[in-house]
Amino acid sequence: MRLRFTISFFLTVGVSVVLFNGCSSLIDNDHDNNYPSTDEQRLTYALNHITDSININNESVEYVMAFYEARNFKTLWVKDSLLEDLYFTEYINDDIKLNLPLKTLDSRPYYSSNTPYQKEILTLLRLSEYLDIQSRGLINFKDSTINDHGFADLVHLDKFLNSKIASNDWVSHLLFFGNKSINIPTLHKSLNDFTSLYPLNENIIKVDQKDSLGSDSNKIALNLKEKGFINDVNISRDSLTHVFKNFQYLNGLKPDGVLGKNSLRVLHQSNLQRFYKGVIALEKLKSTPDSLISSKYIEVNIPSFLLHFYNKDTIVAKHKVVAGANLTQTPEFEATLEYIVTRPYWHVPYSIASTEILYGARKDSNYFSKKNYILTKKGETISPDSVNWKTITSKTFPFRVKQSSGSSNSLGLLKFLFPNKHAVYIHDTPAKHLFAREERNFSHGCIRVEHPFELAKKILELEDHVYKDSLDSLVGRDEETYLNINNQFLVHIRYRTAVIDDSTDQIRFHNDIYGREEKYMKLFEANLP
Q: Is the pLDDT score of 14 beyond 90?
């Protein structure tokens, strides 16, 4: 850790000696009239014996001495020799409740055998470390490393202590302090609810694909018992099915009670892995710049395959989406929604035209007419029949391809355009059947949205757009039309495998479909004892 304040050696030693000499003789006769009678005196004694009694390093000693000297050794949480607000102090002394990977904080938690004053000192050190992590961030997402941390500077610590509103409890103050998004404390508390219900062990009972909820020797029941979802494996099939459906839902799956490949996958994941998903999601939320937090925005979360449209923290619309396949992954970024486009042309990306379309042209001479593709070269339209496709390769493909507008167009009848370097946008699709799938990663990278007209109408209604009642008539025209968004707002493309379910307000976990979080899991595991 790095200590980010200075204190002179003379002052530290001088204060320590005076305090030690002033208190030690009193404590030696703890049954006579000279026994320290105030919290301040007893805290001072604890500070003078700090390295012997709770075994902390010199840096920590200097920090707490400087802090308490500045407040005339007035205690924070001890009153009349008793540690008050046990909920808060125990919260600070529990890595899991703080939603930190195990062994993140260097300051150890207090023991039940410690005196109230020793407990206060250790609580202060852990609080300070936690505040520093909150301000710096736990994960450096750019370098995929754990950020260094130390103690919060005393000004920052005092700001936290002095800014609490009397009506708020200390834990709520801790979770909201420095956070401008309500989503952060909400997710934090929901992850706390999960860890309070289910043990974070890594023991997994292996389940075979052939196992069923009704088998005599039920490995599914044993697995769920190990995870804390049931207390006794000898429960009825109906009860087990009910628990299994809840388990499926918690893990972002369709709660059908059927042991499919996705259910098998989550059964073989530990609660600790789920906890880490929550920690990573929290850190991603905290890393969002304040400038990107607005009252109106669209958020697409790739692992949950859902789009939410927010206005003033209220969900205005919710839609299923199809995201990029593993070979053509949808990136994470922010961009401003500028247009809604009706009956869009699809200007086929060169990477697709020179591979997939070339393959189709070689296989079927009517491929272009069937797909309503228009072939151009140097800006001029040419006939596909005039090309000897056998002589064209993906490296020598000299054409551009676009698809005429209409219901069979790959973009459907609507496109939501937010210009970005990735050439990714949200659009309608003729392949409606894909929305029935549990995991929907099938696109070339763009985002296909279910019921796009409902989304478009909500957007236009909120800004009282001149065409808010004319969308259907515009789509009926046989031409591409751009509708300018007057009150432009951000579209966030996110990747979070732990989210708050908007219908239950509880945490849900999703599959790391692109494997983007494996590196962070390994970072956390490296800290385990």
A: no
